[in-house]
Design brief:
258 residues; alpha/beta; Rossmann fold; two-stranded antiparallel ribbon; 8 helices; globular
């Protein structure tokens, strides 16, 4: 019996360590994990990991939109992640990108994109640029993506990254995302990748009639709900609560974060 208890404790500790590893501060190329998994990987290797990610994490959970699946398989997620965490690029979890922010779990990126129900003539507003990954995925599907980031360093890095990778239909602005982008409104769809206390009124106003917004909002149970907000042709708003989620808070305020 004591032996069984010991084995159970070892397994439990292993599971805890495994889940914690992606958020540990490894020493880059000096890490044993880094050396084992990343040295010698080619773009073809990463492409295989991406295909596996789509099949096992996204299709397996019910995402079916062909445009979304093709975008998820084509955008190199590993190039949107800091090098010290790159070995985990195609794992089923969010990852740190610096400055207290994260890149969302691949499944959540795919799910929110599918919820928007967008096409190649649509113009999209994204609130919370982060690494630029969600904008890159959307850019493969729609006509133009306008994305706002309030943390200046993060936004500038994302803009440079998107341009260098050839995502030329993505436009980045450093500003308070809760105010939207009035000069480019109205938008066919709006996606918010940070949790708001409530749905910002400017975003509702900048959504086209017939458009959709997908946004995580704080719930009354100390969590967050992923909402689909729809505006009908007469301007009436309907809200559908979908799944519980966990996003970093939406930073609001007129001053950008330096």
């Amino acid at each position: 019996m004591k032996f069984v208890k010991l084995i159970t404790i070892i397994i439990a500790l292993y599971c805890i360590l495994y889940n914690y590893l992606p958020f540990s501060q490894f020493t880059g190329s000096n890490s044993i994990v880094f050396a084992r998994e990343n040295i010698g990987l080619t773009e073809e290797d990463y492409a295989w990991k991406r295909k596996n990610m789509v099949e096992r994490q996204i299709v397996a959970r019910g995402v079916r939109d062909k445009k979304v699946l093709e975008a998820m398989e084509s955008v190199p997620r590993h190039l949107f992640i800091p090098e010290e965490f790159r070995q985990y690029s195609y794992y089923d979890q969010p990852l740190p990108i610096g400055l207290g922010q994260t890149i969302s779990q691949p499944y959540i990126v795919a799910l929110m994109t599918e919820m928007l129900d967008v096409d190649n003539d649509d113009i999209i507003l994204e609130i919370g640029t982060g690494s630029g990954y969600q904008a890159a995925v959307l850019s493969k599907i729609v006509k133009e993506v306008y994305t706002i980031e309030i943390i200046e360093d993060l936004g500038l890095q994302a803009e440079e990254r998107l341009k260098s990778l050839g995502f030329n239909n993505v436009y980045v602005k450093i500003a308070d995302g809760s105010l939207g982008w009035p000069d480019r409104a109205p938008f066919d769809a709006i996606i918010v990748t940070a949790a708001a206390e409530k749905i910002p009124d400017p975003l509702i106003k900048q959504l086209k009639s017939g458009g959709k917004m997908v946004i995580p909002v704080d719930s009354s149970f100390l969590g967050q709900d992923l909402l689909i907000v729809e505006k009908d042709e007469s301007g009436e708003i309907s809200i559908e609560k979908t799944i519980p989620v966990r996003f970093v808070p939406l930073v609001e305020g007129e001053e950008v974060v330096k």
